[in-house]
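Researcher: Here's a chain I'd like modeled. Treat it as a single chain, no partners, no ligands.
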Amino acid sequence: MKIAVLLSGGVDSSVALNLLVRAGHDVTAFYLKIWLEDELSFLGSCPWEEDLEYANAVCKQIGVELISINMQAEYLKTVVEYTISELKAGRTPSPDIMCNKSIKFGEFFKKIDSSFDKIASGHYAKVEEIEGKYRLIKAPDPIKDQTYFLTYLVQDQLSKILFPLGEFNKKEVRALADEFELPNRDRPDSQGVCFLGKIKFADFIKFHLGEQKGNIIDLDTQKVLGKHNGYWFHTIGQRQGLGLSGGPWYVVEKDLNQNIIYVSNKNTVEEKRRKDFTLCNLNWIGGIPDNLNDDKLEVKLRHGPITYLCKAELIGNNRVAVHLNDNDQGVAPGQFGIFYKGNVCLGGGIIE
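Model: Modeled as a single isolated chain. C-alpha cells:
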C-alpha cells in the first residue's frame, strides 16, 4: 500500500515507519510543524528542531522521503484555542484527544495527496474491521495503550488508519529500535501533552493566560494555607505542585470568580471522592452500544491502566449518566470519560 507515516522524531513512530518499510509498503514520512513563533520566543527554545533532526536521520537511514508540513494555523484554531478556552472556564482539557481528532487524523488528511491508501502513526492501539465496521482495540501494554486519546475518531477516520505498534509492548518496541539500529533508539519517551515536547505545560499556560495570585484554602477549616498563580494552573484531584506542607493535599474545588483553590488533606479527602457524574458531547465509535448496563462495562477517566466498572444510562441530548463501582477523587469537569468492554474502546464524552 501507499502509506503516509506521521513521524515525530521519537522512537515509537520511527519503529512504526521501519516496520512498514520492512513489510514492503510504499512509504512517505511526514513531520507536522505546529509551533507558533511568538510562543517559541516566550518559551525560549524550539522543541521541534531536535525532533526534526532525528526524523531526518531516521528517514535518511532507510531511504524514505520526509516532508515537513506547516499546520500552525490549523493547530491554533483547534487544539490551542480549545485548550485555553477550557482552562479559562475552570475545566480540565485533553489537548491530545483534540489533536488526534482534528489535526493528525483530521486536517492532515486534507493536506496530503489523495492517492495515499492509509495514514500510519506510532500510537499503541489497534483497528479491526468486522463486517464493514471499524473497532478501536486496546494495545497489549496497559500502561502505553493510547485508545483513550483516540476515542473521538469516527468510522471514516479509522478506515484510513494503521497502527503498526498495536501488537507490541514498549519493551518490544525498544528491542525493535535496537534491531533496526535507529539513530534515536536511546532517546527517552516524551512525557505530557502531545504538542509540548520538552516544554512544561505550566509555561504554555502562562504564555496564554498569565499569572494571577490567589488563595489556597482548606475546604474543611476555611484556613488560608498558601498562594497559587491562577486557578487555570490546577485541576480537580491534583496532588502535586501545590507547595503545601502537612499533606498530601488534593484540589477538590475551584472558585473562578474569586480565584480560589480549595484543597483537602488525606484525612478528609475520602468523603469527597465521587461516584456519579454525567458525560456530554458523546462520540460512539461503532454506534450507541446495545446494553450500557452490561456488568462488564468499564470507564476510564484519564490515560493509564486504571478503569472502573460502572453503570451508564442515556439521558437524552447526547448525554450519559455514569455511576462508578468505586470512588475517584479526581472527577473533573472537562475531562473525558471513555467506555470499554473488554479490550474494545466504545467511545466516550466530556465530564459535565
